[in-house]
Amino acid sequence: MKLDAQHLQAHNQQAAADHRAAFDYTAARLTRHGHDVPRLLDKIAALQIAIPSWALGTGGTRFGRFSGGGEPRTLEEKIADVGLLHAINRGSGAISLHIPWDIPQDAAAIRALAQSYDLVFDAVNSNTFQDQPDQALSYKFGSLSHSDKAYRRLAVQHNIDVIRHGEGLGSRALTVWLSDGSCFPGQQNFRKAFQRTLESLQEIYTALPADWKVLIEYKPYEPNFYSTVIQDWGTSHLLAAKLGKKAYSLVDLGHHLPNTNIEQIVATLMMEGKLGGFHFNDSKYGDDDLTVGSIRPYQLFLIFNELVYGMEDPATINPTPAWMIDASHNVKDPLEDLLQSVEAIRIAYTQALLVNREELEAARENNDAARAQEILQDAFRTDVRSLVAEARQRQGGALNPIGLFRHLNVRRQLVQERGLKTISTGL
Ligand code: AOS
Ligand code: ZN
Ligand code: ZN
Ligand code: ZN
């Protein structure tokens, strides 16, 4: 389904008076505090978050999956869903594909279809954590790190194929996440597994086009529960540093052991110019892949505080990271879930833009911890929702994305179009 622009305008009209009052109040207060509100709105509007093709259907867990109906059955339908999200919120103008779940048979046609929705292709994701039906050798005991060269060659070739697919779509990055590791002490030689992974990545790196990046994602455990070859940011950074200029680390928020200081990892990677991408989600325990901002919004703000500092510091050597969501689960409508995630990201970003950096640095230089906290929390506790809504409205989006989604009965229409029992390709 396509969004009817007039319907959107009418819906915005209903919310206009309330919105105007909130926006005027916030804008006036921020202006009094020395902020340039029009500039803030431009920055908010410029932040575009890629939607993962695997999040458009109900994700489920290893215990089960409860389809919600009307889910996209093809890549074309996935693009239509992201197009709809983008038309509503104007903040999800990119899609991150997963190969082989989303093989573009005709790249030019798929690219044109995406363009018709104002979408570009962000990083393409390879998959050597599952066996494909016709696969000659199994990844049960690893892929890029496998003890047998023939298996490694297969996995390397898959990654090169993914790059080729991505080239056809105008994508400029490959994200590699490996499940390689071991379940029991003694099962694997850590050093050999690392060395083999490095060698495999070097072969993939050689096949990267000049203007491409490879993003190396890390995760401490799951599906392997004793060791994971690329377990943490240090290992990812070590690989990226050995590979060269086009290799970067990718931070997935759910891929840290409890209480890890993720904002400090972000700061360090950006200082080194090695933060290439982000997978946003939220979690209480592990890689829970919950809606962004649903559990720890303050942590998300602190992470954005480092990201904004890293991007706006005149001495920065870090390219703008690729922003992607990596969340999907069982209970919400996946499209509402994604609207909430994009909103949470834009809110945290906006709050981070409000941090008074000069005053914060002065407080730090004076070792004034209380003042530093006041500065951060003043920004975090500012209700910026009307700024985010104003930026979205100026871009042609909805003041209240979920309100519009429900008002239009989008899910009912999708069920009518696609049926109640739909299994999207992928997870
Ligand atoms: C897995 O835990 C990772 O987050 C990866 O990014 C993975 O490729 C993605 O979630 C698709 O399964
Ligand atoms: Zn991820
Ligand atoms: Zn994950
Ligand atoms: Zn995840």
TrEMBL record:
Keywords: Isomerase, Manganese, Metal-binding. GO terms for molecular function: isomerase activity; metal ion binding. It comes from the Bacteria. InterPro entries: L-rhamnose_isomerase, Xyl_isomerase-like_sf. This is Sugar isomerase. It comes from Dawidia soli.
